[in-house]
Amino acid sequence: MIPASLAAPAPGWVRDTDVVVIGSGIAGLVTALRTHAQGLRVLLVTKALLDEGSTRWAQGGIAAALAPDDTPEEHLRDTLVAGVGLCDEEAVRALVTEGPGAVRSLMELGALFDRAEDGTVALTREGGHHRRRIAHAGGDATGAEISRALLAALTKSEGIEVIEHALVLDLVLDGGRAAGVTLHVMGEGRRDGVGAVRARAVVLATGGLGQVFAATTNPQVSTGDGVALALRAGATVTDLEFVQFHPTVFWLGEGARGQQPLISEAVRGEGAYLIDASGERFMVGRHELAELAPRDVVAKGIMARLRETGASHVFLDGRHLGARMWEERFPTILANCRSHGVDPVTEPIPVVPAAHYASGGVRTDLYGRTSVPGLYACGEVACTGVHGANRLASNSLLEGLVFAARISQDLARYWPGPALALSRPEALDLSGPEALDLSGPGALDLDGRERGGVLEPSVRADVQRIMSEYSGVLRNAEGLARAERELAALAGRSAGEPCVEAWEATNLHTVATAIVLGARRREETRGSHWREDFPDRDDTSWLGHLVTRLDDGPTTTYEGAS
Ligand code: SIN
Fold first, then answer.
1. Using CB atoms within 10 A of its CB, is residue 430 exposed (0-12), middle (13-18) or buried (19+)?
2. Listed residue (141, 145, 296, 147) closest to 207, CA to CA
């Protein structure tokens, strides 16, 4: 059984704010900064340290029609093609038209993007883009620079309260509206343990779910907490079966687990190509863009070649790029490869696909609003409709940026400042539970939802094994049925004491169960969902979305194309 809320101890402290933002990647930071600038009180909660999410790992860059010979219309076209019929065109239009301005505002905030010799923003290409459209920073350290600039702005902004090392547990509902969250804080002194934040709106910006798989480019913290919380809160989640596998991840050897080193698609954008062990460029002839085809096409091309040859990996050959290009454009990747004993200047890099990005997530409208009033979602945790069945490379940072701005506009429209008076001024006293009556009507009410036990921390490794074996880049009915059975069997492994690792394992289990449900149901191959037993795209039956909700258990409904 998947519970509707976690069996957390009663909150020991309570904090009041207007808007609580959960997550400190680009989506969370921009939402927090912009919402605070509108005069609302903002509390930013992050699971580890402020800069530990996925954003800082982003290498390639941020896509926007910044070049004089490019247009939002062309960016729209490439995004729709990559999304294989499932993008929401209106959402994509918002993304591509507001994108260039959003990137410029990031520069005004202090993010230093790489420049061409003529002083304009240097732009590269990545898979699926027909133009040079990807702005980058520090060569291949775009996410780190964006994160640095946003955190500097956060420090300067004064007044945004931050709680680090805080895992979000459940949404607090008040009469069906989001009214705050419960948190487990680790090591923050007087806020240690389970607490609660009461707020007029909650913004989920918790990032991805890559840790559902054994090998992923995502950091340890990407455990799908936002999607799991949203499901427990009764929100609608969609397109979860579309987990994107990045084609070129450094091959660390058979059975490598955990976060794997990414080799940015921008390396192919600058001219590197894929070869097999015999030196053949196997992507040529498979797609007009060869190695720069959309990501799903390249990942499938690699998997097909691995099957044909029985090899465990292929190679990315960038020797011809020369030492200067490697040193100046790809310093991070160069150092990473060398630290693993491979010098890309003189040797091809061994690569395989690995889990990278959730194209689906908590369904939102064009202003980040979910199906639960007062609950917003932004960034990878959200499904705004811009990615469809396969995200176009470097559209993710852009999505976080554009939709964070939209959410803050919406918050200011419906909850204008100056901030509301504290409903319970005594909540500012964090000296202990005795300072507060937490049992007041609606205060921390879970709206009668059923509380369930959390799972043993060791469930995490089992979920990862099951998902990688049966629900990874290649899927079929038999494997998915097995995944469903094995995941169901894990549901009995309750943890004695709830702890952060147990809550994370529970979230991973919930999200994995929902992914498998969708993957089993969608009997076709589209975008990043590859069914070996249904190898073709089927627009007659499947040009719509699978919507997942947690009722008595997880259920998936098909919503046909309108
Ligand atoms: C990359 O640099 O290849 C990753 C870019 C992305 O995932 O959008």
1. middle
2. 147
Residues forming beta bridges with residue 451, ordered by sequence position? 5
Q: Which of 154, 159, 167 is nearest to 23 (CA)?
A: 167
Cα 391 to its chain centre, rounded Å, is 11
Nearest to 386, CA basis, from 98, 126, 96, 31: 96
The catalytic residue among 295, 329, 460, 520 is 295
Residue 449 confidence (pLDDT) above 90? no
pLDDT tens-place string over residues 261-290: 999 999 999 999 999 999 999 999 999 999
34: Cβ contacts below 8 Å, ≥ 6 apart: 404, 405, 408
Site to probe by mutation for ligand 1, drawn from 246, 263, 359 as the one with most ligand atoms within 8 Å of Cβ, is: 246
* Mean pLDDT to the nearest integer, 459-463: 97
Compute the distance from residue 484 Cα to the ligand 1 centre, in Å.
30
Distance 139 CA to ligand 1 centre (A): 13
218, 225 contact by CB (below 8 A):
no
Nearest to 169 by CA among 190, 139, 140, 193: 193
Here the tokens at position 526 are 């589209």
CB 217 within 8 A of CB 252: no
Q: Identify the bridge partners of residue 369 per DSSP, sorted by sequence position.
A: 376
Whole-angstrom CA distances from 251 to 205, 209, 313, 340 are: 30, 21, 7, 10
Rounded to the nearest angstrom, the gap between the alpha carbon of residue 334 and the centroid of all alpha carbons in its chain is: 25
Which residue ranges form the domains of the chain, and what is each CATH number? 14-58+140-242+359-414 (3.50.50.60), 252-353 (3.90.700.10), 459-539 (1.20.58.100)
Residues 466/514, Cβ–Cβ less than 8 Å: no
26, 54, 59, 295: residue to mutate for ligand 1 pocket, most atoms within 8 A of CB: 59
Cα(467)–Cα(478) distance, integer angstroms: 13
CB 142 within 8 A of CB 59: yes
Helix (H) or strand (E) holding 79: helix 72-82
Of 395, 473, 461, whose CA–CA distance to 63 is shortest?
395
Token representation of residue 368: 């980040």
The pairs formed by 307-312 with CB atoms below 8 angstroms and a separation of 24 or more are 309/276, 309/277, 309/278, 311/276, 311/277, 312/251, 312/254, 312/352
pLDDT tens-digit map of 426-448? 333 333 333 333 333 233 344 44
CB 62 within 8 A of CB 435: no
Minimal CA–CA distance to 314: which of 336, 292, 281?
281
Supply the pTM of this predicted model.
0.92
482 as an active site residue: the answer is: no
Find the angle CA(68)-CA(69)-CA(75) to the nearest 5 degrees. Answer: 105
